[in-house]
Design brief:
Layout (H helix, E strand, L loop, with lengths): L13 E3 L9 E5 H10 L7 E5 L4 E10 L3 E12 L6 E5 L6 H12 L3 E6 L10 H15 L6 E2 L3 E2 H6 L6 E5 L5 E2 H6 L5 E5 L7 H9 L3 E5 L7 H16 L3
Parallel strand pairs: 1-3, 6-7, 6-12, 7-8, 7-9, 10-12, 10-13, 11-13
Antiparallel strand pairs: 2-5, 3-4, 4-5
Length: 247
């Protein structure tokens, strides 16, 4: 007998929606999402789509009516509940547009729970478009299979970040002037954590002293080569995830 085909197919489109989802619920989709489903994916009545809401998990739905600019779907069942996300923040100085978008995308794919833009003395970006960064993380969540969208925090200046730092959260900061081996240091500190990455020019001497004065701070090295800010962020996240067992 031929094998029963998997349902839904691997090619089933996957979308994040703002509203809470539930079984047998009908949902109207319009705007860019409808354009993607109708014009790009060419959905027809009966076509499947996966939806997730960052609350309950991922659901399977089926198109019941398809127009030129919108469509209505009906949820047919829960595929999986919302995932448990490793408790890791990425606190990163904003860098040039395009590169900071890449940081947001890869932080999401690698499993970060929260992205915090940190303004330092050498930060070259005056304003941080957090709406755009969140949109990049939503799109990355849709593509990488996450059911929990990373939290997008407001930009904060470094002194304020350090002043209000949670007592229970370790802070691993990439120190270009040298620190302890990253993987060993991360393995030695279990529990909530954050990674702090500076701008292209790095932290200045006063900022480095302020960070080191924080009891929860641990300077780490990411190898013998000088890394760009976005590379340092991805490398440090990867090391922490490996140390924490997420991989």
């Amino acid at each position: 007998m031929p094998a029963t085909p998997a349902w839904p197919p691997e090619s089933t489109p996957r979308l994040y929606v703002e509203q809470p989802l539930g079984n047998l619920q009908e949902l109207r989709i319009d705007g860019p999402q409808a354009h993607y489903l109708v014009a790009v994916m060419r959905m027809k009545p009966g076509s499947p789509v996966k939806l997730f809401d960052d609350i309950s998990g991922e659901w399977l739905a089926e198109a019941i009516s398809v127009g030129k600019r919108d469509l209505t779907v009906k949820i047919t069942g829960l595929l999986r509940p919302r995932e448990s996300v490793p408790d890791l923040w990425l606190c990163a100085a904003p860098i040039k547009k395009g590169r900071v978008d890449w940081v947001a995308e890869k932080a999401c794919e690698l499993g970060v729970d929260r992205l915090v833009p940190v303004i330092t003395r050498r930060t070259v970006i005056d304003r941080v478009n957090t709406d755009r960064l969140r949109a990049h993380m939503i799109e990355a969540s849709e593509q990488c299979g996450r059911t929990a969208v990373p939290h997008m925090a407001d930009a904060v200046k470094l002194p304020a970040l350090l002043r209000d730092w949670p007592k229970e959260r370790a802070l691993f900061f990439a120190d270009e002037q040298g620190g302890a081996p990253a993987l060993e240091t991360m393995r030695a500190h279990k529990g909530p954590a954050a990674i702090l990455v500076g701008p292209e020019g790095g932290f200045d001497s006063d900022e480095r002293e302020q960070i080191r004065a924080l009891p929860q701070a641990h300077g780490i090295t990411l190898g013998p080569r000088i890394l760009r800010a976005e590379t340092a962020a991805a490398a440090a996240i990867s090391l922490w995830m490996a140390a924490a067992g997420d991989w």
